[in-house]
């Protein structure tokens, strides 16, 4: 039997064991697989359906869904958070704070406390939705690159500071420094992100001096934490003395952390004038570069988020193009959703794939510009409330 209607793909959490199906199920071509009322009794049946791709008619799905009584709902605070929307709100607030403080510190009373509050919100966002928060680094629009880049860096700084068992005060200071490291370059970075011409002498000077100027601006805005100020002043220094503005060769661990995450996020996020590296290649290249200085932070980052972190694009052995939605564990590969099939056709709905099966294993990473089909972020991550 074939049908001429809109089909919707089902995700893993939409098929339930020991419960009568509320709809007929079809394959991608519209052929009937199972009839309404059929009862799935084994996990293997569910896995088999998801792997091949299973669909329902849109009108049937809208007419009836399972009663929401099978599992307890998460706390209301978790249900209300859209991590991708929250990131945009944080970016808007941070941009306003940095621009006002750079132009006239008197416009932003309690500046340090307000940046600290943003750091606290990011920390909580990582607690509730770490995989989705990481995915935003690789997937969301970076038209606001200067601000989002600082937020991306701050997220990774927060993650690694926790893993290194830093106390809350030191971790918070490093995150605040990452959020404010480019305060002296906010407007200039917006121009540079779009500019295709070579840098002018004035622009080169602005780049070289922005760390020290940024520290001065923060001090004028009321920041008195010397570690915060030092991180901002030194975040472009390099352990071999080739950095700027002072050519230092000794960096404290907090400065090194912000510097390293700053470089990584710049590699994996695109601008108008620069394509992003694929995540695996970026991590490998940076690991080799930093290993020359004895910097072990890239290795720690890879251990925590993997070569294929949430939000990165991958090609599967069967030819599907998929997006990683959950980090690998010590015993399992990353969890992925296919959204383009092996024939290069977009799927109606992202489909979970079991990457432990040979045909769905990750074959390679893909750079962001290689994929033009948009991923519906909430369709993937809202299905996994703790992602």
Automatic annotation (TrEMBL):
At the top level, the lineage of the source is Bacteria
Checking Pfam families in the record gives: HD_5 (PF13487)
Q: Which CDD domains match?
A: HDc
Record protein name field: HD domain-containing phosphohydrolase
- Origin organism is Uliginosibacterium silvisoli
What is the phylogenetic placement of the source species in the record?
Answer: Bacteria, Pseudomonadati, Pseudomonadota, Betaproteobacteria, Rhodocyclales
């Amino acid at each position: 039997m074939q049908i001429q209607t809109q089909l919707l793909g089902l995700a893993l959490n939409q098929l339930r064991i020991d419960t009568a199906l509320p709809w007929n199920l079809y394959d991608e071509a519209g052929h009937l697989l199972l009839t309404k009322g059929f009862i799935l009794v084994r996990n293997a049946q569910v896995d088999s359906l998801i792997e091949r791709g299973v669909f329902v008619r849109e009108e049937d799905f809208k007419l009836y869904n399972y009663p929401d009584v099978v599992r307890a709902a998460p706390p209301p605070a978790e249900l209300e958070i859209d991590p991708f929307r929250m990131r945009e709100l944080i970016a808007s607030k941070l941009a306003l704070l940095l621009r006002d403080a750079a132009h006239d510190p008197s416009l932003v009373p309690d500046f340090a406390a307000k940046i600290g509050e943003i750091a606290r919100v990011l920390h909580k966002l990582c607690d509730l939705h770490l995989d989705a928060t990481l995915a935003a680094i690789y997937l969301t629009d970076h038209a606001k690159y200067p601000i989002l880049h600082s937020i991306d860096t701050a997220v990774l700084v927060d993650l690694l500071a926790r893993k290194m068992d830093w106390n809350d005060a030191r971790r918070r200071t490093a995150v605040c420094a990452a959020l404010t490291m480019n305060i002296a370059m906010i407007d200039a970075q917006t121009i540079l992100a779009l500019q295709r011409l070579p840098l002018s002498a004035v622009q080169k000077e602005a780049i070289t001096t922005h760390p020290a100027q940024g520290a001065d601006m923060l001090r004028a805005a009321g920041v008195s934490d010397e570690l915060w100020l030092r991180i901002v002043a030194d975040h472009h220094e390099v352990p071999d003395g080739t950095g700027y503005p002072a050519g230092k060769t000794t960096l404290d661990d907090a400065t090194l952390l912000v510097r390293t995450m700053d470089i990584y996020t710049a590699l994996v996020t695109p601008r108008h004038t620069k394509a992003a590296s694929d995540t695996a290649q970026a991590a490998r290249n940076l690991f080799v570069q930093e290993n020359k200085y004895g910097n072990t932070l890239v290795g720690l980052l890879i251990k925590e988020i993997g070569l294929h972190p949430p939000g990165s694009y991958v090609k599967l052995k069967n030819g599907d193009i998929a997006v990683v939605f959950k980090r690998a564990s010590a015993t399992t590969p990353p969890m992925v959703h296919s959204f383009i099939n092996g024939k290069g056709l977009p799927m109606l709905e992202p489909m979970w794939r079991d990457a432990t099966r040979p045909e769905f294993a990750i074959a390679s990473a893909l750079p962001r510009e290689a994929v033009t089909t948009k991923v519906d972020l909430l369709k993937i991550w809202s299905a996994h409330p703790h992602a």
